[in-house]
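tool_call: predict_structure(chain=1)
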Amino acid sequence: MNEGKQDIILKELDRIRKKDFTYESGHILGSMCTQLHPIAKQVYMKFLETNLGDPELFPGTKEIEQKLIIFISKLLNAPTNSTGIIVGGGTEGNITSMWLAKKLSKKKEIILPESAHFSFQKIASLMDMKLIPIPLDKNYCMDIDCVEEKISKDTAAVVGIAGSTELGTIDPIPQLSNICQDNEIFLHVDAAFGGFVIPFLKRLGYGVPDFDFKLKGVNTISIDSHKMGYSAIPLGTLIIRDKKLAEKISVESSCVSSKTQTGLMGTRSGGPVAAAYAVTQYMGMDGYEKLINDCMNRTRYTEEKLQKIGLQPIIKPIMNVVGIKLKKPDVVVQELTKYGWKVNKIDRIGCIRLVLMPHITQQIIDDFIIDLEKVCKQTGQL
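tool_result:
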């Protein structure tokens, strides 16, 4: 009886799942997430029922969490007195960082670029904070000349983006670091996407700016393993320069085995944490460097293919993100969906965005360009 019921449920779920697009197909071209590394799938299930919110029950899983935080800290050149908080992703990392900034300063204004992630809209609403947007320059980066004039007695934090969700651009974090140091203002870097890209672009010789804890003015950095870290959803990390700062947002947790907890989440599975750690150990620095190099090669290939059909990227891609300016991006997105492709439109700058994640092959790009050209001709974009 139960087996029959189980079969019915599984068949229903299989039928519904078939409605979804998949990374495996290669037809998801607009997402900053990807098909996870095979080892992540195996490890995720082994640790699925562990609860890092009650660490003394799962000391082994807690040890893995600490090992992951150490890996991320080294990747971001964090000092020895730093600490990390595992979060669900960039949104939670940004919220936690601004919670800390507000707690430290007792102020309510956040200076951030117009390209900042929509999570800051949530932050403004949740925490009764005011966003002070800074316009972008011709390269779609935060206009550094406008930052200092917006600093006021109410400024709680400045936010810089290292790998924007729109175009993968990197704000002038070194200059922001200097400004924030001079004015004694909290600086948060949202590197949810770029955190696993920029260090390896540097190793590959790309001329990208510093963004991490090498810069003395940086207080916190958020980074996502479920993006270019090549691991399972959901998993991000917030690294804090000084572990003493984390105590400002710690609360007593008398009903579980830990005396205090830091961060938003209580109960949380060790599955994605163990999966992310396994991927970092499997890949290593050399493996990630090769992954980024492959993605950048496919990005350049995509540029060339676009130019051959008369389309140009808005800017020269900084990382594996390509923005294509179009007259009617929403129409193009709708028509591409009919051909079985999912890309994102960026309404604010009137473009569609392609993200050349690890699951995107050269053959997929070739197939996509054929359909993109058809759609652009049908809709009067070419």
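agent: The mean pLDDT is 96. Proceeding to next step.
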